[in-house]
Each structure stands twice: as C-alpha cells, then as structure tokens.
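Action item from last meeting closed. Structure (192 res):
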C-alpha cells in the first residue's frame, strides 16, 4: 500500500466496504485474509451493516448447498455446511438470524430439488416443525418435485415424497403430470 498514499481512515473504509462485500458473498476465507492483513476495530465489526452482510452470506451458503453422495460414503459436504460453520466461527450471528438463513436456504434447496442437501442442512441446523410446514416450504418442495420429475430423477422424487410428503391435491396437478410425462419421455428416449 506504500504506492497508494492514503490516510489510514480511507484504508479502513475500503477494508470495511470490502469486508461487507466478501461477507455477503459467503467468501469467508477471503474475509479472514483481509482482516488478518488489515484488522478492523471490534466496533466496526459489530455494525448492523456487517451483521446484515454476514447474514446475506449465510443465506447464500445455505442456498447453494452442494453435496455429493459417494458410493461408499453417505454424504461428503463441500461448500455449504463447512462454509456456514466457518462463517459462524468467524462472525457469530444471533440464533434467530441463523434460523432465518437456514429457512431461506431450505426454501432454495427444495425448489432446486436438492433433497440430499435439504437433509444435510436439517441435520446440521434443525428447524422447528412449524417452519417445515409453512406454505412457502410446501411451495418450494412442489417446485422441486416438478423439477425432479421433469428431469426423470425418479429416485430423488421418491426420497422427497418419503421425507417431505406433499398434499395429495398437489401431486395431481396438471403441472406435476406434465413434468412426470416429460421426465418419462426423457428416460425412455435414453433407453433407461
């Protein structure tokens, strides 16, 4: 930074803005590196703006939930849960914010049909039963079900419905029937 003759307060301001951006993107390792090079005061780290950025990053990490199932290991978690734990270790958030972020992530994962990621999220960050039965979660599960049917992912459809049953009327909608039809066509055309 010797090349940039800036007053200390401007450097601190740039670090603060960078920190907000990194937190909101869920880039925890970059956040740690930045703070190691340019520490901020506790007062700056506890501002509502930083807390909101950390919350947005937490939602992002929960929502992206990428996991892989291996033949011999049930689940290997990549970015989602490890990133979440790292964020919370670096910047603890109130339990209510963690619950809100997990809920938003759950809706996102359901709507994407990432049922294994849903399971991992709920194992690591359980939500109250009433949260799991909200209309928003039901709608997200419905969207995920349509997606899985249309992709011909019948095993994932079974897992979703066994774990998170949807009302019978949701299963008989024209949208679900069309998605199931498209999925079957796709499977048959692939010779599966």
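Sequence:
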């Amino acid at each position: 930074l010797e090349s940039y003759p800036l007053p200390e307060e401007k450097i601190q301001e740039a670090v603060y803005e960078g920190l907000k951006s990194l937190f909101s993107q869920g880039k925890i390792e970059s956040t740690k590196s930045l703070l190691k090079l340019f520490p901020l005061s506790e007062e700056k780290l506890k501002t509502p703006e930083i807390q909101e950025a950390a919350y947005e990053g937490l939602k992002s990490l929960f929502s992206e939930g990428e996991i892989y199932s291996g033949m011999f290991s049930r689940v290997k978690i990549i970015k989602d849960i490890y990133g979440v734990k790292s964020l919370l270790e670096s910047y603890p958030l109130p339990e209510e914010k963690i619950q809100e972020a997990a809920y938003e992530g759950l809706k996102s994962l359901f709507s994407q049909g990432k049922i294994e990621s849903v399971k991992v999220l709920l194992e690591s960050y359980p939500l109250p039963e009433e949260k799991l039965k909200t209309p928003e979660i039901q709608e997200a599960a419905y969207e995920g079900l349509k997606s899985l049917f249309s992709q011909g992912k019948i095993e994932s459809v079974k897992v979703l419905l066994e774990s998170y049953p949807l009302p019978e009327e949701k299963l008989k909608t024209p949208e679900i029937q069309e998605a199931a039809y498209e999925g079957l066509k796709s499977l048959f055309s692939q010779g599966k």
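Note appended to the action item: The CA atoms of residues 13 and 175 lie 51 Å apart.
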